[in-house]
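Repro:
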Amino acid sequence: MRCPKCQSLKSSVIDSRQAEDGNTIRRRRSCDQCGQRFTTYERIEEKTLVVVKKDGTREQFSREKIFNGIIRSAQKRPVSTDDIDEVVNRIEQKVRAQGA
Protein backbone atom coordinates (compact mmCIF):
# COMPACT_ATOMS: atom_id res chain seq x y z
CA MET A 1 0.00 0.00 0.00
CA ARG A 2 1.13 3.53 -0.72
CA CYS A 3 1.71 5.69 2.37
CA PRO A 4 -0.69 8.67 2.41
CA LYS A 5 2.05 10.89 3.89
CA CYS A 6 5.24 10.12 1.93
CA GLN A 7 3.86 7.94 -0.94
CA SER A 8 6.31 5.11 -0.15
CA LEU A 9 5.20 1.66 -1.29
CA LYS A 10 6.84 -0.12 1.66
CA SER A 11 4.66 -0.69 4.71
CA SER A 12 4.25 -3.30 7.42
CA VAL A 13 0.99 -4.74 8.74
CA ILE A 14 0.68 -4.09 12.47
CA ASP A 15 -2.79 -5.52 13.04
CA SER A 16 -5.27 -7.40 10.86
CA ARG A 17 -8.87 -8.27 11.68
CA GLN A 18 -12.21 -8.88 10.09
CA ALA A 19 -14.41 -5.79 10.00
CA GLU A 20 -17.91 -5.76 11.48
CA ASP A 21 -19.65 -6.38 8.15
CA GLY A 22 -17.86 -9.73 7.79
CA ASN A 23 -16.90 -9.04 4.16
CA THR A 24 -13.96 -6.74 4.79
CA ILE A 25 -10.52 -7.14 6.33
CA ARG A 26 -9.23 -4.12 8.23
CA ARG A 27 -5.45 -3.78 8.34
CA ARG A 28 -3.50 -1.30 10.46
CA ARG A 29 -0.24 -0.46 8.69
CA SER A 30 2.96 1.43 9.43
CA CYS A 31 5.07 3.05 6.71
CA ASP A 32 8.61 1.60 6.76
CA GLN A 33 10.03 4.90 5.50
CA CYS A 34 8.36 7.66 7.57
CA GLY A 35 6.61 5.72 10.36
CA GLN A 36 3.13 7.08 9.52
CA ARG A 37 0.34 4.74 10.64
CA PHE A 38 -2.74 4.27 8.49
CA THR A 39 -5.65 1.88 8.02
CA THR A 40 -6.54 -0.03 4.88
CA TYR A 41 -9.57 -2.16 4.06
CA GLU A 42 -9.59 -5.18 1.79
CA ARG A 43 -12.85 -6.45 0.41
CA ILE A 44 -14.03 -9.11 -2.00
CA GLU A 45 -14.42 -7.74 -5.49
CA GLU A 46 -18.04 -8.10 -6.46
CA LYS A 47 -19.84 -7.52 -9.73
CA THR A 48 -19.62 -3.99 -11.07
CA LEU A 49 -22.52 -1.72 -10.22
CA VAL A 50 -23.65 0.85 -12.75
CA VAL A 51 -25.38 4.05 -11.67
CA VAL A 52 -27.86 5.76 -14.01
CA LYS A 53 -27.52 9.52 -13.57
CA LYS A 54 -30.33 12.07 -13.89
CA ASP A 55 -29.39 12.89 -17.48
CA GLY A 56 -29.53 9.18 -18.42
CA THR A 57 -25.80 8.62 -18.64
CA ARG A 58 -24.33 5.61 -16.90
CA GLU A 59 -21.19 5.37 -14.84
CA GLN A 60 -19.60 2.83 -12.54
CA PHE A 61 -20.62 3.01 -8.85
CA SER A 62 -17.84 4.66 -6.85
CA ARG A 63 -17.40 4.14 -3.10
CA GLU A 64 -14.74 6.82 -3.19
CA LYS A 65 -17.16 9.48 -4.47
CA ILE A 66 -19.60 8.73 -1.66
CA PHE A 67 -16.81 8.57 0.93
CA ASN A 68 -15.28 11.87 -0.24
CA GLY A 69 -18.68 13.57 -0.32
CA ILE A 70 -19.42 12.54 3.25
CA ILE A 71 -15.91 13.59 4.36
CA ARG A 72 -16.50 17.06 2.84
CA SER A 73 -19.93 17.43 4.42
CA ALA A 74 -18.71 16.30 7.87
CA GLN A 75 -15.29 17.96 7.95
CA LYS A 76 -16.22 20.34 10.79
CA ARG A 77 -17.98 17.61 12.75
CA PRO A 78 -16.49 15.09 15.17
CA VAL A 79 -17.01 12.10 12.86
CA SER A 80 -14.30 9.45 12.52
CA THR A 81 -13.30 7.95 9.19
CA ASP A 82 -14.30 4.54 10.58
CA ASP A 83 -17.85 5.85 11.13
CA ILE A 84 -17.94 7.29 7.62
CA ASP A 85 -16.64 4.03 6.18
CA GLU A 86 -19.42 2.14 7.99
CA VAL A 87 -22.03 4.49 6.48
CA VAL A 88 -20.54 3.97 3.01
CA ASN A 89 -20.62 0.18 3.58
CA ARG A 90 -24.32 0.34 4.45
CA ILE A 91 -25.07 2.49 1.40
CA GLU A 92 -23.22 0.09 -0.88
CA GLN A 93 -25.01 -2.93 0.63
CA LYS A 94 -28.39 -1.28 0.02
CA VAL A 95 -27.47 -0.37 -3.56
CA ARG A 96 -26.29 -3.95 -4.21
CA ALA A 97 -29.49 -5.36 -2.68
CA GLN A 98 -31.63 -3.15 -4.94
CA GLY A 99 -29.60 -4.00 -8.03
CA ALA A 100 -29.68 -7.77 -7.50
